[in-house]
Amino acid sequence: MNSDNLCGEVILIFTGGTIGMSENPDAGGVVxxxxxxxxxxxxTPEGHDVKVRPVLWSDVPSPHMTPDMMLKLSNDIENYLxxxxxxxxxxxxxxxxxxxxxxxxxxxxxxxxxxxxxxxMRYFNESGYDGVRNLVDAVKVCLxxxxxxxxxxxxxxxxxxxxxxxIKFSSLSVDPFIGQNTxxxxxxxxxxxxxxxxxxxxxxxxxxxxxxxxPDVHLIGCHxxxxxxxxxxLRSQGARGIVLEGxxxxxxxxxxxxxxxxxxxxxxxxxxxxxxxxxxVWPIYAYPGGAAxxxxxxxxxxxxxxxxxxxxxxxLLVGSGCTENEIxxxxxxxxx
Length: 336
Prior knowledge:
Structural class: alpha/beta
Number of domains: 2
Strand order of the largest sheet: 4-1-5-6-7-8-11-12
Shape: globular
């Protein structure tokens, strides 16, 4: 795909993360260290009349990102992309929640212009620092003419992933992501961006305006022998949605079933995910707590969506005032 003769701006948004951190012995480890300006000196798109417009949006570790912050970032990106001169946006972000923020952007950014997230696994003053390479590659990807409305993408370790399917599988590798169930979208080789799997995107994934991410939607991880104590407590505290991370094809301990029934009776949507990286939820088993059993009770299945992404999606749907039928419809589309 030819990207010659491009003219315009790439918005470079710094939110924080390891890419901007340094080791500080006085702090006892690695911390944010105001390295954004140093990174900027490394980014000069060659062969194009393209400028990089830096935006210091925040400087926080990605575990400090909240759904509200993700939604604000989406709104800010939407405003930047509405400018005619802007070709796309690159977001520098910590890797711990990069896939989840990317999915939030994928759900809510309406502009068809490219949005690429990247970061680093090694900190700024560490040997083998990967931040500059990832940043330069992300800008290359951003300048690649996208399919109209293409997915928000992650670029790490020379590989490209769709936001919906990206998952961090390694806590230490400089190549930390995989494409859950689908593989990568492509890769960067020298000055070229090679797309190995391309398909029309669905962005924006939500056809209605998103108002907020409801704070009373909660994620519960299942454990062996678990009963209904946690789910009953959350229900008593005003929970407006529950996401369960089950085992295997979406199966849960049998003693959890009564608590699930009480939530459904109270019109609290319950969404079922699996902790498995591949395969997703399949309603095969009809024993108490099995996915088929739970689906028959009214539980919503999330397919291949990770529990974290399903939680963000349910927060948006509940926060935007969606009905039960609308929630079911969106999850049926997203679970494919």
